[in-house]
Amino acid sequence: MLRRSLLTTTVVLIAGVLAPMIPATAGSDPATFINNLGNQFQIVARSPAAEQRLAGFRQLFRDDFDVPSLGRFVLGRFAQILNPSEQQEFLGLFETYVVYTYSDRLAEFAADGGVTRVIGSRLDSGGTIVSSVIIRGQTGRPIKVDWRLTERDSVYKISDVIIDGLSMAVTGRSELEGVAERNGGRPQAILAVMRQECANAAPP
């Protein structure tokens, strides 16, 4: 089975902020970009119907995360073994698993008054790092989150999130390598496990 820790950090990374309906251009201030994400996420998370939250969350994830690059990194060496059709299937399963697993939890986070505060930004070899602190409600422990932004098609895209020093991308790669190793080194086992996880997480 694919352990829940593969995307556990995604709960926090998306719960704090998500993408605007109109993407911020790469020429705008990165800190402003991240701040604006939170406002748009609150709108989606408070949609009264579960179907609306699922659709809104899926659109935000597609629009504002660099899913293709993130998926290729997470697959690592297996991206060279899977054929293009299998790679595309993985990206779809990855997206669906995130959407199914966390849309309702994120709505609960928004209702709890969770907020994100940007505390700085800096240039990085891979783009721009925006540092923030996520506060979960009145009694939650502040969580330090660094957002790696890269330019894609003249807009910012989120390519990785580092939560209390733990990279989402690196953690995901480690988990998928473990899945393949436990199944005779076959990368196709990753797809089989992801299909099952998506079926288990699908809303009734």
Q: Notable features of this structure?
A:
204 residues, 5 strands, disordered N terminus, 7 helices, Nuclear Transport Factor 2, Chain: A, single chain, alpha+beta, five-stranded antiparallel beta sheet
Describe the structure in brief.
This protein is α+β, with helices and mostly antiparallel strands. It has seven helices and five strands; from the N terminus they run αααααβββββαα.
Describe what you observe in this structure:
With 204 residues, the chain is an alpha+beta fold. It has one domain (4-195): Roll (Nuclear Transport Factor 2, Chain: A), CATH 3.10.450. Helix content is 51%, strand content 20%. The chain has 7 helices and 5 strands, in the order H-H-H-H-H-E-E-E-E-E-H-H. It has helices at residues 8-16, 30-45, 50-64, 67-75, 84-111, 168-181, 188-201; strands spanning 115-124, 127-135, 143-152, 155-163, 166-167. A 5-stranded antiparallel beta sheet has the order 1-2-3-4-5. A hairpin with a 2-residue loop joins strand 3 and strand 4 (155-163). The longest helix is centred in the middle third of the chain and has 28 residues, at 84-111. It is globular and about 45 Å long. Mean pLDDT is 77; it is low at 3-24.
